[in-house]
Amino acid sequence: MSSPVKYTLTGNIGVVTVDNPPVNALSHAVRQGLLDAFETAAGDASEALLLVCEGRTFIAGADISEFGQPPQEPFLPDLCDRMEASDKLFVAAIHGTALGGGFEVALSADYRCAVPSAKVGLPEVMLGLLPGAGGTQRTPRLAGVDAALQLMTSGKPIPAAMAKEAGLVDEIIEGDLVDGALTYVQKLLDDNAPRRSTSALDVPEHDAAIFDQFRAVLGKKARGQVAPQAIVDCVEKAAATPYEEGVAYERQRFMELMGGDQSKALRHFFFAERAAAKVDDLPRDVELRNVESVAVIGGGTMGGGIAMTFANAGIPVTLVEISDEALERGLAIIDRNYAGSVKRGKLSEDKAAACRALISGATDYSQLADVDLVIEAVFENLNLKKEIFAKLDDVCKDGAILATNTSYQDVNEIAAATKRPQDVLGLHFFSPAHIMKLLEVVRGEKTADDVLATCMKLAKRIRKVPVVAGVCYGFIGNRMLQPYAQQTQLLLLEGATPEQVDTAMENFGMAMGPLRVFDLAGLDVGYKAREALSEEEKGDPAGYRVPDLLVEAGRLGQKSGSGFYSYDENRKPTPDPEVHKMIEDTASELGIKRRDISDDEIVERLVGALVDEGHKIIDEGIAQRASDIDVVYVYGYGFPAFRGGPMFHASLTAG
Ligand code: T1G
Ligand code: NAD
């Protein structure tokens, strides 16, 4: 098997080239190849060494697929030290994304050059780790403590220009990278540029208070997560001790994290997200349909956000509403959303204007004759949806994909309202649709393979994470929400308060506790849905009696100023004794004995409710795999990624 690392002498410069698709990850073979190349260079006529990569990116990190296996020498930290100690000037040339161990390799060079489009980053914290190949020690020496802490605790890559400003990149190469880099290396040699071993540099002056400041901020922003705090400890060590001591400390902390549950969970989630995009029974060579124009029917809460999602990906969108005033209202929501994105610095004025220009409005369906994809997002009413799909069937061209954003209605029944059920599926976005990453792709009984494959690919283009779901009430996420909500109500009646339940779940890592979520979504949504059900279909009254009493008392949640909590004008929740009394009275009415309930019991029962339903969803073939359910619940419902998702968490705690 040939090595993924080549070494050639170009004039007086030894060129080391890594070629390990798809992202030049630092597999054992790559690490061995780098070591061999540097050993060869040590004895030849080269005056300097240049490291470049083939393919779409510089080294994008350690090979995550090797984690958890017995580590094989050369270990990356030792390799970085060995390359840094080379007796020849060493330059790294960066394109694509130099991430994690990849950027740590570049940091062990004397100098770094990069094309303008390149990015560098240390995203280990996203895997519950820290840069474990000297990154926590070299980065502050080059960029200073503050920039180093920002880069490593955010995990976010930065563009080459910003990296140059921070001192992490020395030269921007316009045009061809290799040619430009060779010229740059020759110039360094001609100028007799000094060797600059990063680990030999001092950490620049800084305010010693910065470490506790970062600890406090991270304690809130990354509550319960261990890796960010370990990164602060390592940088503090870099500022206070020689490199050898600091890098030994880094190694110790890295190994602790690697063996910990949070990193196992985040590494699981990294691959789970990528696996979700693969549909096991789809032929690999399915020819995809073109999607260059989209229409959204219904410009309400969801329709506006869905329209923005496609416009933001550069795809023209026609928003169809029932009347001119409804259309104006829908477009006004979109304008407000774009203005908000610009205000928050998420989008530049120009970019927002360019996206907004891709959205047009209509009130008649004749404008839909040529669109490639229609997404229906009208009221949650099956008959209305069937009417609309019958109209779309008449108006839209052959081969157009017809999708519904319904939360609960039967996608097979909607498909049956057309003569082309093979072109129909569900595209279930989550509110707010232009922000939430999850997209449940609901596969109808008759949905054609190419329609499904097209939408799975389209998800990545509109920056969503797709998960395939079969047709059932609530698909995957909303179906799991039912038993979760039921268990929440039982815990209240059995003795927990709303604030105790929410605090227990938020300390576990949920973005929001269940009662705050229900108040946010509106208690009237469930109330209206239950009105259409018989007593039998409603199930155990303990599951809905209190929410119904709240709605009948005009307490609809945040939208009405009170629900399970009372809300001030800034929507800040306050526990409400009136609600406590309502719960106690209902408990005695239902003959439920109240008792003290521990936070652990709350977490165990609520996560257990999700997991039990998750197993049923897999057994019924609604979800392809358990890890897909994890992706749904992390991206759609705020389950903590550092616990891997409900199914992974259960597998860990089951031991
Ligand atoms: N190791 C192994 N496989 C990887 C990989 C990695 N680091 N990165 C990506 N892949 C695979 C991925 O599974 C997929 O495989 C394919 O490459 C394309 O990825 C010691 C310990 C680089 C920005 O965290 O952020 O270094 O599904 O679909 O959208 O301190 O991949 O095709 O079979 O994501 O263009 C630190 C993780 C590691 C970077 C490209 N590095 N990767 O995004 O493609 S820890 C990272 C990414 C570390 C050191 C520590 C992205 C990308 P398949 P993709 P993409
Ligand atoms: P909404 O009431 O906010 O908006 C529905 C819009 O459809 C209204 O603006 C209405 O004018 C328009 N409309 C009604 N009949 C129409 C017709 N014949 N032609 C064109 N437009 C018509 O509802 P929403 O919250 O945006 O939900 C829309 C759909 O998305 C529902 O099926 C819902 O279940 C689903 N959904 C909602 C959420 C959510 O959190 N709100 C999340 C995911 C999916």
Cross-sheet strand order for the largest sheet: 12-11-10-13-14-15-16-17
| C-alpha geometry | globular
Q: Tell me about the largest β-sheet.
A: 8 strands, mixed
CATH class of the largest domain: Alpha Beta
What CATH architecture of the largest domain do you see?
A: Alpha-Beta Complex
- Annotated CATH homologous superfamily of the largest domain: 2-enoyl-CoA Hydratase, Chain A, domain 1
Tell me the number of structural domains: 3
Mean pLDDT: 96
Helical fraction equals 40-55%
CATH topology type of the largest domain? 2-enoyl-CoA Hydratase, Chain A, domain 1
Number of helices, where a helix is a run of at least 4 consecutive DSSP H or I residues: 27
Q: What is the strand tally?
A: 19
Helical/strand content category: alpha/beta
Radius of gyration (Å): 28 Å
Bound molecules: (2S,3S)-3-hydroxy-2-methylbutanoyl-COA, nicotinamide-adenine-dinucleotide
Low-confidence stretches: none
The amount of beta strand, in percent, is 5-15%
Distance separating the two termini: 39 Å
